[in-house]
Inverse folding.
């Protein structure tokens, strides 16, 4: 059986439709992907991580955003909605817009069974093209485990993992730590 071809959608058509849509979708290389709803654990982890980051960064110039900001990755061929982002400067928007950011220093994704391989592979590859990005965080919703990548001065990415009670995610680019006990409280 032959599979149906996926129609190519222009960037402009995607943005026009997404701005009017009741539900968000992401755009990758001319293909539009509807975003499905998450589990209670997924939603709580997004809120909790955003809150913990916001508290840890409260006295400095950085601020946190969860789920509702569209991020341009690469050369205008991908638009995604990360679960959590941190910005340490004024928001920088794609030319002519006020709803497409392009300068987070941290992006975090709460892993779902349906998106985990994409978050680890293709999405991370696109995030690496964001010049300002310094930390990429992956949060499990099935076990007490946080993985993160920190961009080093030479452009390489260093991998780290924290798992289990008492562990901490040390985000060196931001100079903060997130307690897994606090992140996963009442979730697992």
């Amino acid at each position: 059986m032959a599979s149906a071809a996926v129609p190519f959608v222009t960037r402009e058509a995607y943005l026009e439709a997404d701005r009017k849509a009741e539900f968000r979708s992401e755009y990758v290389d001319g293909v539009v992907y509807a975003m499905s709803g998450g589990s209670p654990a997924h939603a709580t982890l997004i809120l909790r991580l955003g809150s913990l980051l916001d508290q840890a960064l409260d006295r400095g110039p950085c601020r946190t955003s969860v789920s509702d900001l569209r991020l341009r990755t690469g050369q205008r061929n991908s638009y995604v909605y990360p679960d959590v982002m941190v910005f340490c400067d004024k928001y920088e928007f794609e030319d002519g817009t006020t709803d497409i950011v392009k300068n987070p220093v941290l992006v975090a994704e709460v892993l779902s069974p349906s998106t985990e391989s994409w978050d680890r592979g293709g999405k991370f590859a696109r995030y690496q093209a964001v010049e300002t990005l310094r930390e990429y965080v992956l949060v499990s919703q099935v076990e007490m485990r946080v993985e993160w990548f920190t961009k080093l001065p030479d452009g390489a990415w260093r991998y780290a993992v924290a798992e289990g009670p008492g562990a901490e995610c040390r985000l060196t680019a931001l100079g903060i730590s997130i307690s897994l006990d606090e992140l996963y409280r009442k979730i697992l």
The chain has a mean pLDDT of 93. The chain has one domain: 38-183. The radius of gyration is 17 Å.
